[in-house]
């Protein structure tokens, strides 16, 4: 009798809910069911630490007030909606939690060169560290005014490249060549060092020069911008 009971228990465990075998791939996602890379989960996924789960969405040629155009030298940005976010990172000095800069429902902009791509509930998602995000849009409005850089990043309105020297000699410029300088249109809150928030040492309205291959390119209302980190900036005035 005991042997029969154990056999039945073993069979029930292997089959699991609705007769499915534990650890096997699910054929389809039903209402109220959660899947990660086609494996059934007991509930919704919960990112840890500073991790964020983002549902990717295709960036249209025009998105509201902004147009994001990748170039060969810069990062290719992507838009996405935050589906779930971890509580944040841990301050190594105090052990306190540094709150995640984004939360569920935020519309964010991220680099193409980061994250762990997954399939969640049958759709493309990506896990990324929140510190690697380029920025977010306030109230999901894709406009210049609503864009908020994350961490120590700044949004720079790219200045037009000079076409001649001070003596009037024409300069030969490559098509779409970046001047690598411009006026700062928005600034992130800063970055944590040794457990303390260090504000960005660049202010909105100042002008900066940045590394030629730095950051991600964006356009708002036809004007060219660059999203770069503070450490990628060379000088300011």
Strand and helix layout:
Elements: H1 2-15, E1 34-36, E2 39-41, E3 51-57, E4 66-67, E5 78-85, E6 88-90, E7 97-99, E8 107-110, E9 116-120, E10 123-129, E11 135-137, E12 147-149, E13 153-158, E14 181-187, E15 191-193, E16 196-198, E17 207-210, E18 216-220, E19 223-229, E20 233-236
Antiparallel strand pairs: 1-2, 3-5, 3-10, 4-18, 5-8, 6-7, 8-11, 9-10, 11-12, 13-14, 13-19, 14-17, 15-16, 17-20, 18-19
Which labels suit this protein?
10 Kd Chaperonin, Protein Cpn10, Chain O, 237 residues, globular, seven-stranded antiparallel sheet, single chain, 1 helix, 6% helix, disordered N terminus, mainly beta
Summarize the structure.
The protein has 237 residues and is mainly beta.
Explain what the structure shows.
This protein has 237 residues and is mainly beta. The chain has a single domain (26-236), classed as 10 Kd Chaperonin, Protein Cpn10, Chain O, CATH 2.30.33. The chain is built from 1 helix and 20 strands. It has one helix at residues 2-15; strands at 34-36, 39-41, 51-57, 66-67, 78-85, 88-90, 97-99, 107-110, 116-120, 123-129, 135-137, 147-149, 153-158, 181-187, 191-193, 196-198, 207-210, 216-220, 223-229, 233-236. The strands form 5 sheets. Strands 9-10-3-5-8-11-12 form a 7-stranded antiparallel β-sheet, with no helix packed on it. The protein has a 7-stranded antiparallel β-sheet with strand order 4-18-19-13-14-17-20, with no helix packed on it. Strands 1-2 form a two-stranded antiparallel ribbon. Belongs to the GroES chaperonin family. GO terms for molecular function: ATP binding; metal ion binding; protein folding chaperone; protein-folding chaperone binding; unfolded protein binding. Residues 1-18 form the signal peptide. InterPro entries: Chaperonin_GroES, Chaperonin_GroES_sf, GroES-like_sf.
């Amino acid at each position: 009798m005991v042997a029969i009971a154990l056999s039945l228990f073993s069979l029930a465990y292997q089959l699991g809910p609705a007769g499915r075998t534990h650890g096997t791939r699910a054929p389809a996602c039903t209402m109220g069911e959660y899947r990660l890379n086609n494996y059934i989960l007991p509930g919704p996924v919960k990112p840890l630490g500073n991790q964020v789960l983002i549902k990717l969405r295709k960036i249209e040629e025009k998105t509201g007030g902004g147009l994001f155009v990748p170039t060969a030298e810069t990062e290719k940005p992507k838009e996405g909606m935050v589906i779930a976010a971890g509580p944040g990172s841990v301050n190594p000095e105090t052990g306190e939690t540094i709150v995640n800069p984004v939360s569920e429902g935020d519309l964010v902009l991220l680099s193409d060169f980061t994250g762990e791509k997954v399939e969640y509930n049958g759709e493309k998602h990506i896990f990324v560290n929140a510190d690697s995000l380029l920025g977010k849009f306030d109230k999901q409005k894709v406009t210049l005014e609503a864009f908020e850089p994350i961490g120590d990043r700044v949004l720079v309105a790219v200045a037009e490249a000079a076409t001649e020297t001070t003596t009037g000699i024409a300069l030969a410029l490559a098509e779409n060549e970046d001047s690598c300088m411009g006026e700062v249109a928005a600034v992130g809150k800063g970055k944590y060092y040794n457990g303390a928030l260090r504000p960005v040492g660049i202010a909105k309205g100042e002008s900066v020069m940045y590394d030629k291959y730095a950051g991600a390119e964006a356009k708002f209302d036809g004007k060219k911008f660059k999203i770069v980190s503070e450490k990628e900036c060379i000088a300011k005035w």
